[in-house]
Amino acid sequence: MQDLREKVLTKKTEFEGQIITVQQWKVALPDGREAGREIVLHNGAAAVVPVDKQNMVTLVRQHRVAINQMTLEIPAGKLDDPMEDPLMCAKRELEEETGLKAGMWQKMAHVVTTPGFCTERIALYLATDLTQETAHTDPDEFLSLVKMPLTQAVMMVEKGQITDAKTCLGLLMAQQLLNQPAFLWQEGMLRAKPGMNDYYPKADGC
Predict the structure, then answer these.
(1) DSSP 3-state assignment of 31?
(2) What was the pLDDT predicted at 2?
(3) Residue 126 gets which letter from DSSP?
(4) Which residues pair with 13 in a beta bridge?
(5) Could you count the other beta carbons within 10 Å of the beta carbon of residue 73?
(6) Are 36 and 91 members of one domain?
(7) pLDDT for residue 204
(8) Are residues 161 and 187 in the same domain?
């Protein structure tokens, strides 16, 4: 089988910001020729689909200036450090943006967003057994919360009314998980059958 891997020869930092670092890489192609690559370094992120016992999902409405559009997104945020536990980041962002805390956490996926030029990976979680407290967003965050049936949110994805990639994937995966017999609703709480991986009950102090 042909080896398709590229070998990194050099790296040069062109810009270093608070969220991203941009580098120029020189790589050796599989046929021996050299080529340039523009690479964006990102710590990574975590995103949460919070679903209550009425099967309502809480989304965040905000303006994304890069595309000059209002978007509906699942709560999310970047890791403070590349080595930060994505689950801890997910819990922090859910509480900061929505005031919600979850008693049960299920990791759904860990995906790359734009592997052609960016190192960002986003961990996606399903959060259930929700309790409401007070949101405390960052000073530069302006957003509003929108609660709707999960089925309605999925329909908005299918109609192209929700276009944020992590949100589309998270909502579709959450609906699939919640409809699978591997999960049981007991007293309004999501429980996993024995043997399922990456399932996190609420720990003391979380």
Answers:
(1) coil
(2) 81
(3) E
(4) 23
(5) 22
(6) no
(7) 39
(8) yes
- Domain count for the chain, please give it: 2
Residues 60 and 101 in one domain: yes
Distance CA 94, CA 100 (A): 6
In a domain, 2, yes or no: no
First to last CA, the chain: 48
Q: Which stretches in the chain have pLDDT values below 70? A: 137-138, 180-206
What domain range includes position 14?
7-42
Contact call for residues 69 and 109 (beta carbons, < 8 A): no
State phi, psi for 98 to the nearest 5 degrees: -120, -15
User: 0.70 cut: is pTM over it?
Assistant: yes
Which DSSP string do the residues of 61-120 spell out, in sequence order? EEEETTTTEEEEE--EEE-SSTTS-HHHHHHHHHHHHH-EEEEEEEEEEEEES-TTTB--
Pair (14, 62) in one structural domain: no
Copy the structure tokens of residue 188.
């309004």
Q: What's the confidence (pLDDT) of residue 181?
A: 56
pLDDT at position 99 is 95
CB 121 within 8 A of CB 47: no
Tokens matching residue 204: 């003391």
**Closest-CA residue to 197 (of 108, 115, 87):** 108
128 and 144 together in one domain: yes
Q: Are residues 176 and 96 in the same domain?
A: yes
129 shares a domain with 69: yes
